[in-house]
Amino acid sequence: MAAEYLGQHGGGDQVLDFDGHAEVLLDNWDILDRLRADPYYKDVVEPSEAKLIDKGSVKRRVGYEEVWVS
Questions:
Q1: Helices of type H across 1-70
Q2: Residues in contact with 55: Cβ distance below 8 Å, sequence separation at least 6, in sequence order
Q3: Cα torsion at 4, 7, 8, 12 (round to 10°)?
Q4: In this protein, which residues make up the domain named EthD (predicted)?
Q5: pTM of the model
Q6: Which contacts of 45-51 are long-range, i.e. CB under 8 A and separated by 24 or more positions?
Q7: What CA–CA distances, in Å, run from 44 to 2, 7, 23?
Q8: How far apart are CA 25 and CA 16, in angstroms?
Q9: How far is the C-alpha of 30 from the C-alpha of 56, rounded, in Å?
Q10: What is the spatial distance between Cα 42 and Cα 17, in angstroms, rounded to a whole number?
Q11: What is the pLDDT of residues 15-37, one digit of tens each?
Q12: Does the CA dihedral 25-27-30-34 come out positive or negative?
């Protein structure tokens, strides 16, 4: 990215009030439970998240995807 554009937002007053987004697609909820129980997640990922993410400000939205093929 060109240096002259750093720190500028193209959205004007339309800039959203968050700076990150993650979308996680799961076949079932057990996968998420297994992820959180995994030693690598506990020892490596979770400590990193604590430094990078203000978990108190996190907003979650849960939904489902319905795929139609015609």
A1: 29-37, 39-40, 46-52
A2: 49
A3: -170
A4: 8-55
A5: 0.56
A6: none
A7: 34, 31, 20
A8: 23
A9: 24
A10: 29
A11: 667 777 888 888 888 998 999 99
A12: negative
Phi, psi angles (nearest 5°) of residue 41: -60, -45
Q: Which residue has the tokens 């240096």?
A: 3
What distance, in Å, lies between the first and last C-alpha atoms of the chain? Answer: 41
Token pair for 16: 């959203």
pLDDT of residue 62: 86
Q: Does 64 score more than 80 pLDDT?
A: yes
How far apart are the C-alpha atoms of 30 and 12, rounded to whole Å? Answer: 42
